[in-house]
Amino acid sequence: MKKFALALAMMFSVGAYAAETAGITGMVMTNDTVDNNNFTYPKNIHTVYFSNDPSEGAIFLFYLAYKKTGTHQPSVELTDKNGKKIDQCQFDPTTVTKLPWTHTLTCRWSGRQSDGGINFTVYNKFGGKQEKIGELFLASKNPQ
After folding, report:
1. Of 53, 32, 49, 24, nearest to 121 (Cα)?
2. Residue 111 CA to chain centroid, in angstroms?
3. Distance between first and last Cα of the chain
4. Phi, psi (deg, nearest 5) at residue 12
5. DSSP class of residue 52?
6. Closest Cα partner for 135 from 34, 17, 49, 52?
7. Residue ranges per domain, the chain?
8. What separation in angstroms does the CA of 59 have from each of 4, 18, 56, 62, 124?
9. E strand intervals along 21-117
10. Superfamily of domain 2-141, CATH level 4
């Protein structure tokens, strides 16, 4: 029953959008990454973090598939339960010359985080417009 509840919670905590310029093909929170055959994999998956712990940290790993050729600039915004911006990750522009084109990106975060969870929202800037292409919610847990 616990595995079912966890799977159900994770299903509703991940959002992918029908964006015009790019899409998320996968995203996960991990403690580290492993590269194998030119592909980046998560090492250990995180489903919660301990709030207000200064040693807390992880890597937000996501796979981005571009839908249009041209210059794209992805970014990630971290917000608390009230929508207040905590941090962000900006990535260098990528020039997509042919399709399909998939990009693996990582956003490292750490430090004392608020209770109530963190929302990771992925954006893509293309042709002067920025669009939301996905989000992941990471729940918090109070240390025992």
Report:
1. 24
2. 17
3. 23
4. -85, -10
5. T
6. 17
7. 2-141
8. 25, 25, 11, 10, 19
9. 22-30, 33-36, 39-42, 48-50, 57-66, 70-79, 85-90, 94-96, 101-110
10. abc- transporter (atp binding component) like domain (2.70.50.60)
How are strands ordered across the β-sheet holding 57-66? 22-30, 57-66, 101-110
CA distances from 65 to 39, 81, 112, 124 (A): 14, 28, 32, 11
Residue with tokens 């998939």: 102
104 three-class SS: strand
pLDDT tens per residue across all 144 residues of the chain: 444 343 434 444 455 566 899 999 899 999 999 999 888 999 988 888 888 888 888 999 999 999 999 999 999 999 999 999 999 999 999 999 999 999 999 999 888 888 889 999 999 999 999 999 999 999 988 765
